[in-house]
Design a protein that fits this description.
Blueprint (H helix, E strand, L loop, with lengths): L1 H10 L2 H35 L10 E4 L2 E2 L5 E2 L2 E3 L1 H34 L9 H14 L1
Helix pairs in contact: 2-3
């Protein structure tokens, strides 16, 4: 029972929960970026390059063949078009993360740069100032 409680305490720590949320949001963000690259960025680039669909770019090492049973054996290919699309996905995700971290660091610098207001004088200091002012009169 002690190990179960220990695991529960570990799993419910703020860092673990924050990490789980980050992974889930990151996965969803990755899908959005992949769709953005595949459906928005790559078609115009393909059009500019003569109607090329990058997902179909590949180098065929061995063509499709029929085996002895008459079944088709898939071709062996290097799918460099898909690789290129994944590289573009990665660059976009890395750039967005860079911008987010830059914004976070800028906000932290602003917090550090703002000087703390001077502490208010204590009651005894206020009383001593009043006595001093009365003695001056």
């Amino acid at each position: 029972m002690g190990m179960l409680k220990e695991f529960k305490d570990f799993a419910m720590k703020g860092n673990v929960v924050d990490l789980a949320v980050a992974v889930i949001i990151g996965g969803a963000f990755g899908k959005i970026v992949s769709s953005f690259v595949k459906d928005v960025i790559m078609p115009p680039i393909g059009l500019l390059l003569g109607g090329v669909n990058f997902t179909e770019l590949k180098y065929e090492l061995k063509p499709e063949q029929m085996n002895d049973a008459g079944e088709a054996v898939a071709a062996v290919t290097i799918n460099y078009g898909l690789f290129f699309q994944n590289v573009v996905d990665f660059i976009i995700v890395a750039f967005v993360i860079f911008l987010a971290i830059k914004a976070i660091n800028a906000s932290k610098k602003k917090e550090e740069a703002a000087p703390a207001p001077p502490p208010a004088p204590s009651k005894s200091e206020v009383l001593l100032e009043e006595i001093r002012d009365l003695l001056k009169k």
